[in-house]
Amino acid sequence: MRALIQRVSTARVTVDDVVTGEIGGGLLAFVCAMKGDTEKECAWLARKIVNLRIFRDDADRMNRSLVDVGGSALVVSQFTLAAETKGNRPGFSTAAPPDEGKRLYEIFSADMSALGVPVANGIFGADMRVELVNSGPVTIWLDTASG
Question: Which residues participate in catalysis according to the annotation?
Fold first, then answer.
């Protein structure tokens, strides 16, 4: 499973001009299930993200987690994180099939919520518009295959 996370002061996603998810301070997590991923990868990635110490402490150092700061997460599915870019046209054959990708996306969101983080979501497979204000900027790539 792959994720691109961004520390944000605000973020929201809209589908057909309707806001489907919105948060204040916290993390925007773009996620992609890969072929062969299971619930195990969802749980690992959720724990990693909520415990990653990328928020500033009183000494202005990145030393606090999402849980520590009481932040929220906006979780958005993004199969393009599976892009294979050897040529000029990306391929996505390593992404999980849509039904499995949706199932794992929903499990991942539930895992984040079970870890005490308020979670808002986009709509799997929809044409979404994502707006965010990146704080820092802080943007981090995570891949369960890399550990």
Answer: 78-80
Phi then psi for 50, rounded to 5 degrees?
Answer: -70, -20
CA distance 118 to 113: 6
Q: Tell me how far apart the 2 most distant CA atoms of the chain are, in Å.
A: 46
- Block mean pLDDT (10 aa), the chain, length 147: 98 97 98 98 98 97 97 97 93 96 98 98 96 97 91
Q: Around 7, how many Cα atoms within 13 Å sit in the side-chain half-sphere?
A: 17
Instruction: Write down all domains in the chain, each with its CATH number in brackets.
Output: 2-146 (3.50.80.10)
Is 77 in contact with 99 (CB distance < 8 Å)? no
CB 147 within 8 A of CB 40: no
Q: Where are the alpha helices (DSSP H) in 94-147?
A: 98-114
Distance CA 122, CA 102 (A): 12
User: Which residue carries 């550990």 as its tokens?
Assistant: 147
Minimal CA–CA distance to 118: which of 25, 2, 18, 14? 25
pTM exceeds 0.70 for this model: yes
Q: Which amino acid is residue 68, in one-letter code? A: D
Task: Give the alpha-carbon dihedral of 55, 104, 115, 63, to 10 degrees.
Answer: -20
